[in-house]
Specification:
The chain is of the alpha+beta class. It is globular, with a radius of gyration of 17 Å. The protein starts with a helix and ends with a helix.
């Protein structure tokens, strides 16, 4: 079994959660999201990010507005919708449960060595 494949799958599993958290801070441009996700070592490329943003928009969780740019074409800035905020709140609760549960399992493994 290849550890890199499992690591990639783990990162993909939390990508949507992380993107929603970044957008929850306020209006954000996609390239800024990409930069933050990359620096946090959650491997993302534009080919992954843009389809996910489109899916989140179609689900009613995010919205965007076009803003004119002095240095080029207009930019899309993303925000959470009311539904997105509620959805993220539910994900936060699940995240806390997962952190607690996995922490228990990991600590048992560490203590038994």
């Amino acid at each position: 079994m290849n550890i890199e494949n499992t690591q990639v799958q783990m990162r993909k599993g939390i990508l949507e959660f992380c993107i929603l958290h970044i957008i929850a801070r306020g209006e954000v441009y996609a390239s800024d999201m990409l930069e933050e996700l990359t620096s946090a070592k959650i491997m993302v490329v534009e080919g992954t990010l843009y389809p996910l943003l489109t899916r989140l928009r179609k689900a009613g969780l995010v919205d965007y507005k076009w803003v004119e740019s002095n240095s080029g074409p207009p930019r899309k800035y993303y925000t959470l919708t009311e539904e997105g905020t509620s959805f993220l709140s539910g994900l936060d609760q699940t995240w806390e449960e997962l952190v607690t549960s996995t922490g228990r399992i990991i600590s048992v493994n560490k203590n038994s060595k």
